[in-house]
Specification:
This protein is of the alpha/beta class. It has a domain of 131 residues: Rossmann fold. It is 17% helix and 36% strand. It has four helices and nine strands; from the N terminus they run ββαβββαβααβββ. The longest helix has 10 residues. The chain is globular, with a radius of gyration of 16 Å.
């Protein structure tokens, strides 16, 4: 895979060196595409981080080379489950080792992907219940315009960040890989 990739040491906390962790960093140049995984370099990077049973929320058009269970509100690309992602996460008994969290990043992208009248809902509320579908030590790969991801507050540790430069007048895509480190109270359980 082309791109720059190197580990670096990240210091977290008020005292430099109070918590030390190695964070994998990747920088990719990839032309933008309507669907995230139409970008071959980003698709390969994502597949590398997928482990075990994979839940792909907001699955879209492209299938990953992974043990993937696909959920989308649209039946256009034949997901395994046609459902609102929030409802699926709140009601399913299925458990996964990895969750792909790639919602439309804003209202415009939601309209482009799903048409008028369909929106992903409240991203914070979805992230709050997402751990209920993870096996212990499971991970989440998040995509968007920031690197907040699932966050430490929900019991996750960042393992990797990927910046995808699309060039021109396009926002970069920021991707975060996190692993669950402890069991927090999951809303809805």
């Amino acid at each position: 895979m082309s791109g720059v990739q190197f580990p670096y040491i990240l210091y977290i906390g008020s005292n430099a060196g109070s918590i030390e962790t190695t964070l994998n960093f990747t920088y990719l140049y990839q032309q933008p595409a309507r669907y995230t995984f139409e970008q071959p370099k980003l698709k390969a990077w994502t597949e590398k981080w997928c482990k075990g049973a994979v839940l792909n929320l907001f699955a879209g058009k492209i299938r990953l080379k992974a043990n993937e269970y696909r959920v989308d509100i649209s039946d256009e690309f034949k997901p395994d489950c046609v459902s609102d992602c929030q409802e699926f996460v709140e009601k399913t008994d299925k458990k996964f080792d990895t969750v792909i969290f790639d919602p439309p990043y804003n209202w415009r992208k939601s309209r482009e992907k799903y048409g008028e009248g369909k929106y992903i809902g409240n991203e914070k509320k979805l992230k709050d219940v997402l751990p209920r579908v993870l096996n212990n030590g499971g991970g989440v790969i998040s995509f968007g315009y920031d690197t907040v991801g699932m966050s430490r507050d929900r019991g996750f540790k960042k393992l990797a960040v990927c910046v995808v430069c699309h060039s021109g007048n396009h926002h970069d895509t920021l991707c975060v890989v996190e692993r669950q480190t402890n069991n927090h109270l999951v809303l809805g359980d």
